[in-house]
Amino acid sequence: MKSYILAITITMFLSALFAFQNIGDVTVRFLMFEWVFPQGVWEVLVFCTGAAIMWIFSIFSMFEMRGKYKKELKAKDERIAAVENEKKMILESMAVTKNSGFSPDTLHAPYTDGESQITGLAD
C-alpha cells in the first residue's frame, strides 16, 4: 500500500510540474463539445482518465479470475469429499473384515493338498 501512495504522490508531482511548464491554451473538440484548456492541464486530465479506465477494467478482470478460481475450488472440494467417502468405505470394510475373523492371508493359504482356497488363483 505504501508503494501505491508513493507512486501516486510522484505522479501527481510530475503532473503538476508538466502542467506548470505547458501553460499555453489548446482548443479541444470532441463530438459536439469544445473546450479551451491549458495544454498541461488537458494532458494531465487525459492521463488521469486513461488510468481510471484501466483501473475499472482491472476490476472486471479481477472478478473474472475470482469466478474461475471459485469454480476450481468447488471442483476440488467435490473431489476431496469423494476421496474421503471412499476412504471411509475402505476403513469400514476393513473393520467388518477384521471383526468377522477373515484375513487376507487366508485367501492364498494352501490346502493341505497344496491347492489354493480360491479356484483359479492357484497358478
How would you sum up this structure, described in words?
- This protein has helices at residues 2-21, 39-100, 104-107, and strands at residues 25-30, 33-38.
- It has 123 residues and is mainly α.
- A two-stranded antiparallel ribbon has the order 1-2.
- A hairpin with a 2-residue loop joins strand 1 (25-30) and strand 2.
- The radius of gyration is 37 Å and the shape is rod-shaped.
Question: What labels describe this entry?
Answer:
single chain; 123 residues; mainly alpha; two-stranded antiparallel sheet; 2 strands; 70% helix
Which stretches are poorly predicted, pLDDT < 50 over at least 5 residues?
none
Rg, alpha carbons: 37 Å
Helical content stands at 55-70%
Number of helices: 3
How many β strands by DSSP? 2
SSE string, helices as H and strands as E: HEEHH
pLDDT average, as an integer? 84
Principal-axis shape equals rod-shaped
Span between termini = 72 Å
Order of neighbouring strands in the sheet with most strands: 1-2
**Which structural class matches the secondary elements?**
mainly alpha
Sheet-strand content, in percent, reads 5-15%
Summarize the main sheet: 2 strands, antiparallel
What is the secondary structure topology, with strand pairs?
Elements (H helix, E strand, L loop, with lengths): L1 H20 L3 E6 L2 E6 H62 L3 H4 L16
Antiparallel strand pairs: 1-2
Helix pairs in contact: 1-2
